[in-house]
Design brief:
By secondary structure, this protein is an alpha/beta fold. It folds into three domains: 216 residues, Spore Coat Polysaccharide Biosynthesis Protein SpsA, Chain A, CATH 3.90.550.10; 99 residues, no CATH class; 78 residues, no CATH class. The chain is built from 18 helices and eight strands. It has an eight-stranded mixed beta sheet with strand order 3-2-1-4-7-6-8-5, with helices on both faces. It is globular, with a radius of gyration of 26 Å. The N terminus is likely disordered.
Length: 433
Amino acid sequence: MDPPTARLDMTARVAVVIPLYNHEAYIVEGLRSLLAQSRPPDAIFVVDDGSTDGSLAAARSVDDSRIRIESGPNRGAHAALNRGVALTEGFDLVAILNSDDRFAPERLERCAAWMELHPETRLLCTRLRLIDPSGQPLAADEPRSRWFAAAWSAGTPADLCAWLGRANFAGTTSNFVARRDWLVAHPFGPYRYVHDYHALIYAAIEGGLSVLDESLLDYRVHPGNTITTAPERLIREVLRMHVDVARQLAPSLGSDSAARAAWIDYLRAAWGNVSAFRADLFQVLSAQALAGLTESELEARIDAMDPERYPEIREFPNRALVNLAGGAAAGESDAALAETVARLQRERALLKREREDRRLLARILEVAARSRWIAIGGLLGAGRGLGDAGAADPAARLEAIRGRLAASAWLRLGDRLGSRSVKRIAALLARNP
């Protein structure tokens, strides 16, 4: 789906919540990124979670009436986030910015416009750009860069539950723009590492998660936010989080077939995901929980699955295999998965190329609009049309511009005489053969 182009109805009120903890070096930069937004926030709530460095003083050094700061004892990021959400009463949308990250200048405008155009969206995330401690782009060969590249190639917005099952592509609560009422109804869980993943899974299964395919967040990678603990602690927390999700979803799973289908899509993908979910250990916990039921309790629960609530119970169990096109065998699932991954990677490559073409086209049209040589040519009836290449597809428009540049005697003359704008356009096109 194309990104929204409409601007936000300014009657909607947007608040930003910043959970602050020991980020003296970064908090000022984060606050300034909010004050520089093309659609400014109506309020910024900074909740200091018992910082022991100069973070609180640094935050207070940024003088703006929209910034409201509250400090309390250290209770964890989830508690600071929930307190921040509580402070946003009266606002419509809440964006989260962790105190070591920063927003791209148009993040609030673009996300708020999306939320206005898509009332079904409860929680929105975007692409993100990785930056290093100094704020420069993280090298593509760094481990975190490679991980996120893999995560963003593992699915599409059309299959969000399965995509989340494969990897937490959103990456951070800084990537959350949500309707306040949804955040109030779904408070962050008491997890150290995966409170973001927990919320994302809920939103996806409920059908309220959306992805805006633009890089609108700078996610900072530094030693303080890199997990260096032994795997045991992380795996235990991920297991506990999935157990919590299953228990909390139990009522809706018993009454909503769409929720059941979404949960199965997620679990099927999670069974072989690239994160810390261990399906084998989850099965152990499930078996142990079932072992605590008596035979009569088990029979009663199975018998209670009536066809009215569970229409799946009437489906012929071997239908899918019998009707499988081409007589494919069940053992070919690995090959089918490989084909799915290859298809998703091809689709992702096409989307990436289209984004690059759009950016290039915008730069060329900007150069052309400012060019005196092209303007003079237009008055003389020569060299016109670079900004009116006809085709809607950006690749086709670039090709049309390339053709007109080659065919126009006026533009070729400008190139020979050293017109900087003509040479700039030619150089830009040369980067996109």
